[in-house]
Amino acid sequence: MALEINESNFEEKVMKSDKPVVLDFWAEWCGPCRTIGPYIEEISKDYEGRAIVGKVNVDDSPSISAKYGIRNIPTVLYLKNGAVVDKQVGAVPKAELAKKLDAIL
């Protein structure tokens, strides 16, 4: 299951991770976010032990969203060693999200 990432666990779970991190920026009211939500959950299971997969609610964690300049949701960021290495904006098929993660593993 994807981790809930917020201000209190961001540093530990994301910035200090020795694995690649996938962050899904979303909100309850966002239709396209609900479209990719199940894909994010599947990816978290598919890549368990190889990557950290988290979800950031933009309404609950505005400072994380601001740090990365998130203007549109859903936005999925791919981080390695704490740095953004790829990004996907908008709803796309699961295969597209997995392909970007495969590239940084």
Structure described in brief:
By secondary structure, this protein is an alpha/beta fold. Helices cover 37% and strands 26% of the residues.
CATH level-3 fold name: Glutaredoxin
Largest sheet: 5 strands, mixed
- 3D shape: globular
Quick check: average pLDDT? 97
Identify the CATH class.
Alpha Beta
In which order are the strands of the major sheet placed? 1-3-2-4-5
Shape-level CATH architecture: 3-Layer(aba) Sandwich
Number of helices: 4
Give the distance, in angstroms, between the N- and C-terminal Cα atoms: 19 Å
Low-confidence stretches: none
| Percentage beta strand | 25-35%
Give the helix level as a range of percent: 25-40%
Beta-strand segment tally: 5
- Spell out the helices and strands N to C: EHEHEHEEH
Which structural class fits the helix and strand makeup? alpha/beta
Task: Give the name of the CATH superfamily.
Answer: Glutaredoxin
**Radius of gyration over all CA atoms, rounded:** 12 Å
Number of domains: 1
Explain the overall architecture.
- The mean pLDDT is about 95.
- The longest helix has 16 residues.
- This protein is an alpha/beta fold.
- The chain has a five-stranded mixed sheet.
- A hairpin with a 2-residue loop joins strand 4 and strand 5.
